[in-house]
Amino acid sequence: MVRFILWRLLQAIPVIFVVITATFFLVRSAPGGPFDSEKAVLPEVKRALEAQYKLDLPLHEQYVAYLGDLSSGDLGPSFKYPGRSVNEILSSGLPVTAELGLYALTFALFVGVLAGVFAALKPNTRQDFIPMGMAMIGICMPSFLLGPLLVLVFGIYLDWLPIAGWGDLPGDKILPSITLGSAYAAYIARLSRAGMLEILSQDYIRTARAKGLPEWQVVTQHALRGGLIPVIAFLGPAFAGLLAGSFVVETIFQIPGLGRFYVQAAFNRDYTMILGTTVFLSTLIVFFNLISDVIAAWLNPRLRAQFKGGA
Amino acid sequence: MSTQDIGAIVEAEEGASLWNDAWLRLKKNRAAVTGGVVLVVMVVLVLLTPWIAPYSYEAQNLDLGATPPSAAHWLGTDIFGRDLLTQILYGGRISLAVGFIATAVALVIGVTWGAVAGYVGGRVDSMMMRFVDILYALPFMIFIILLMVVFGRNILLLFLAIGAVEWLTMARIMRTQVQSLRQQEFVEAAVSLGLAPAAIIFRHIIPNAIGPIIVYTTLTIPSVMLLEAFLSFLGLGIQPPQTSWGLLISYGAETMEEYPWLLIFPGAALTITLFSLNFLGDGLRDALDVRGSKD
Amino acid sequence: MMRLFQSLVPASVLVVLLTACGSGESNVESGNREGYLHYGNGAEPQGLDPQVVTGVPENHIVRALFEGLAVKNPKTLEPEPGVAERWEISEDGTVYTFYINPKAKWSNGEAMTASDYVWSWNRALHPDTGSLYAYMLYPIINSEAYSKREITDFNEVGVKALDDQTLQVTLNAPTPYFLQLMDHYSSFAVHPETLLKHGKMTDRFTPWTRVGSIVSNGPFTLEEWSLNRRIIIKKSEHYWDRDNVALNGVYFYPTENVVSEERMFRAEQLHYTAVVPLDKIPDYRTRENSPYVQSPYLGTYYYLVNTDRPPVDNVLVRQALSYALDRDKLTRTVLQDTAIAAYSITPPDTLGYNPPKLFSYDPSKARDLLAEAGYPNGEGWPGLEIIYNTQEAHRKIAVAVQQMWKKELNIDITIANQEWKVYLNSVSQREFQVARRGWIGDYVDPNNFLDLFITDGGNNNTGYANDIYDEIILERAPKAKTREARYSLFTEAETMMMNDMPIIPIYTYTSKHLIHPSVEGIYPNLMDSLNLKYVTLHPGRRLDTESK
Prior knowledge:
The complex is a heterotrimer.
Chain A (H helix, E strand, L loop, with lengths): L1 H28 L13 H10 L6 H13 L14 H36 L4 H15 L2 H15 L16 H27 L2 H8 L4 H13 L1 H24 L5 H11 L2 H29 L1 H9 L2
Helix pairs in contact in A: 1-12, 4-5, 4-7, 5-7, 6-7, 6-10, 7-9, 7-10, 10-11, 10-12, 11-12
Chain B lengths: L2 H26 L1 H23 L31 H37 L1 H16 L2 H12 L3 H28 L2 H8 L4 H12 L1 H24 L11 H10 L6 H28 L7
Helix pairs in contact in B: 1-11, 2-3, 2-11, 3-4, 3-6, 3-8, 3-9, 3-10, 3-11, 4-6, 5-6, 6-9, 7-8, 9-10, 9-11, 10-11
Chain C lengths: L1 H19 L6 H8 L1 E5 L15 H10 L4 E3 L6 E3 L2 E6 L5 E6 L13 H12 L17 H5 L11 E5 L2 E5 L7 H4 L10 H7 L21 E7 L3 E6 L13 E5 L4 H9 L14 H6 L5 E14 L9 H9 L3 H6 L7 E2 L21 H11 L10 E6 L2 H18 L3 E6 L1 H9 L5 E7 L6 H4 L16 H10 L6 H18 L2 E12 L4 E2 L15 E2 L11
Helix pairs in contact in C: 10-12, 16-17
């Protein structure tokens, strides 16, 4: 197992390197530059700006310079926010988005797994249709619909919860977390139901039941492990999609997170910001994929045996 | 006869009875049948739209503005005075097309990729999955912007772009499924019968993994439709005056207090379609589940 | 399992309710009590460096932290003393002498001097700084040459510190709006020692504007700057006019999402919104004591026409398109009466100047013009595309215009939205036939709008090139002796230009805000210029919430 993890970590390095290089050249090929603005930029001004940000050097020189800075952890200055470095923007936005994501995924796992397992226990009955129906609605409802809806109901009409901010007023973290988590909850509910149904129809489950074990033991000790494999596999991409998904929630609820910066950086052609977030994000994704693979392998007793024995 | 011939015969018999059984089981599932019927009706309606739509989708009536449902406009009008029913019908053409085509693209690439990676394992698996990792980490927004700008505002490209993003998740899930299936006896049996890996993958493993595949497909279609809405909303997708359900919903969400019908009806259209897809998908999965016998 | 699940659900609901209930005092209430204004500012500012930033959100905060030589009265927009307590203008209008108020101090207690201005304007004009607003100071002798590196000695530029309190500025020609430029943030003074502590004079991205480092000279000082979350400013102890500042401070919020901002206002989390969503306006108008404030704004929304590209290279086609546009209907329906139909580039009543109106909505005349141009009833029309940058309002207008032209002229029109940078690129490279554009005035004077269309002007983007027009705008108008003479020259130029129709004007902007009843002192004006000195808060007033 340890060798497996180390080997995957080693593979991560070229992956991240390829991502950085591809992104570097990709962003510079998109039309429009960071200094194009509505009022025409005088050519002298443009030249001065490009000189200050080293954009007048040939492309490969810029690339090498960037890699050099990167190796010392310096992600460069943001083009859009002069005076702010990318490191700084990342470190201000990241904890917020991470916290939002954590709450959202916790909510999603909790509600989703419960609903999915619940439904799988009595398929094609009301116990199945109601949670799955709600899950379906959760999938159909994009966050730019659910958010305002929740805001209107709980924030304005009922006046129970604040409708903007993160950490400014008590309770302002509830609505955004639920909005972001709902879509994931719905997916997880359906995935866990499907996974559980697969497992519950297996022979070894019948055996366990025949042995007289109480149902909840059958579920938690035997079925859950295999049934949740698709959920685990989903978590990797879920984290990845979180950053772009949180953009909408962050905009609706005025949350100072990374999602907003990330999407806007693309529109602003803020090269360093895009690269910085990509570097960071790719590292994160690689690790999360790794973790989710490891957990899936661990949950699968046969694969686990394979690892313990060989690789 | 050689073992290979026997294998071929066994396979052929298996094939016939599996699908037949499945069809019979499916027909008995009322929810699935209802879903299927609704879906077919939807598809027919949107295909016939150019002939049956009450108004032209471009015809504006600025003085009329947004009005609730009435005799002249069954579902009301939008702020340009355009008939909402017409908008929903035309929007459905785009949304359903995006949903099906992009998902099909994602399905074909993702399932194949994941299955091969999961089955073959080892170094090939590593390389294939690392490639998936790379594509995941690339900034999606920039990629889409580039595509749209370099290749123009072709709807077909939108489908491809969306499919190109969605297949990654499908591949990962498929691979995990295949990894767990690979250990099972029926695979060992197929191997010992001397079947080629391609045959094993396509004829044995994939059908057995079909449960999560179908479920994930029914999850991907709405995801694709909403992704299209998100992109169009940002200006990277469908161009007005063309429209889609996702666009209608996102505009409706902004004015949900003033003109609730602009949200309710497109929302209902999307929800009904997705529900039907869902029931049908569930029914298919249940019908194709060889081992399952529901207590 | 079932029982566990059943008990968890009500438990969680209870927890949620308990933590949520009693959301406490709203921002408006606490703000009124403490003397803090909660201001929806539209977007996270790029920065707070007066010579680096551009943009309206930045404008509001920079003008609260810094002050110019002269300020504008918020009601009349007439110049008033700022850092300069008085000034003298020479007979011929080219020499301005500013007398700096001896009480004017930096936020660290040091007195302001004239040499601070010389240093700051050197920074603003220096080619290495890359200030996007350097051209605002071009009326000064040799400033443009300095910016273009034609001269390298700043002493040759027409600004001198005669002594610590006296600043003398020499202009190329009498510039009636020069005092207005002194209220534009690009001409504000910055504290030289502070900047030099963090880098060179021409550096753009040093952290000198951070809390703790920044030294400014305005009515407020920077207290907190949480990226993308809020900016808090506090009343300054050293400001020369601090006795007249009623507020204790301001919270600026980066409210990008227009609809969310309106909801925040309704929930009394904001005193003031930067904009108002169009669809909510009719409802606000019907209320008594409506918080909705709309007033004319110095800006024009128009479509650029590329005069080098067929079919719009034909002036008859351009005129036909303009005649076929029902601007009144557009502003009434799509824009909910929040705009005024425009028939020229300069907004009406720009400091007393009124633009010529050369045409009106006349579809039959439009059809005649189109036929004359060679496309009778739309036959043979090669197609036309309107591009615009992604935004709800632009989309709405483009969709409506597309239909109008199709219906009246029977021609094929496509519209395409482009992502912001792509759009900017298309406009500056003139890769378009018709493109949406807006121009907000930086100062109140027709020149600000008319000098857009000089030959090869950076913001011309239409290919319009007329020597006589250039001559009037660049030479004859600046030398005019009286306002009447100047304005009649402008009328001549504008008439000439609009006959050629290189743009299709659509509407004049209005500023739209929601202002809480407890706020007084935010006076609507043509520049939507905010002077926080005049703002007072009155606790106890609530929003009339008519349930909707």
